[in-house]
């Protein structure tokens, strides 16, 4: 009989400690879930800060702004294909003197932004102060020429493209 009591005590002790281990595991899982949620909140907060109230609010370099403008101008004529993106990439490299990584980031942003901001005039309006404050007169002229070159790919500029380029030219070159 004492052996049976000893075996039951051992089994009871093992069951008790197993149950306690499961409680500790549940608490650890809760802490890990909370940490994951906190990390997600931080990531979302960073993105919201970068995006701001507008899709274009996070852009702080003239090259990325130029990529968004050129992409938007070219998409006014027709949806862009890979060869069009290659032409934009070449323009960014030659005119904006951007390295490969900057161009890749700028192109990814420009493709996304052109879907979010369908009005090219809004892009011009939003970025005119950035370009006016950061670019010298020759660089401003290069930007206008790059925009005109992009609009002329595939034929004469459309009316919408011409209006955006006139607005860009008036805002950058009239000073």
Description:
The chain is rod-shaped. The chain has 7 helices and no strands. It is mostly helical. The termini are far apart. Helix content is about 80%, strand content about 0%. Helix 2 packs antiparallel against helix 5, helix 5 packs parallel to helix 7 and helix 6 packs antiparallel against helix 7.
Secondary structure: elements and pairs:
Layout: H1 2-51, H2 62-75, H3 82-95, H4 100-116, H5 120-134, H6 137-152, H7 159-173
List keywords for this structure.
175 residues; mainly alpha; 81% helix; 0% strand
- What would you call the shape? rod-shaped
* Backbone CA Rg: 29 Å
The chain-level structural class is mainly alpha
- Binned, the helix content reads over 70%
Question: Main sheet, how many strands, which sense, barrel?
Answer: none
Q: Mean of residue pLDDT?
A: 82
Taken in chain order, the helices and strands follow as HHHHHHH
Q: Give the beta-strand count.
A: 0
Task: For the record, give the distance between the C-alpha atoms at the N and C termini, rounded to a whole number.
Answer: 104 Å
Number of helices: 7
Which stretches are low in confidence, meaning pLDDT under 50 for 5 or more residues running? Answer: none
Hey, roughly how much beta strand do the residues contain?
under 5%
């Amino acid at each position: 009989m004492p052996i049976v009591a000893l075996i039951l005590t051992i089994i009871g002790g093992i069951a008790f400690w197993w149950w306690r281990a499961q409680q500790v595991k549940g608490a650890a899982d809760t802490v890990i879930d909370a940490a994951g949620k906190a990390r997600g909140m931080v990531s979302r907060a960073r993105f919201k800060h970068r995006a701001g109230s507008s899709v274009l609010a996070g852009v702080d370099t003239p090259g990325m702004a130029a990529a968004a403008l050129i992409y938007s101008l070219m998409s006014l004529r027709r949806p862009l294909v890979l060869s069009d993106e290659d032409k934009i990439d070449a323009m960014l490299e030659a005119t904006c003197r951007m390295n490969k990584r900057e161009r890749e980031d700028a192109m990814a942003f420009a493709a996304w932004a052109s879907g979010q901001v369908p009005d090219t005039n809004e892009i011009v309006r939003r970025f005119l102060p950035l370009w006016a404050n950061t670019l010298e007169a020759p660089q401003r002229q290069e930007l206008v020429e790059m925009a005109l070159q992009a609009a002329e790919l595939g034929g004469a500029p459309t009316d919408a493209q011409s209006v955006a380029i006139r607005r860009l030219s008036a805002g950058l070159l009239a000073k």
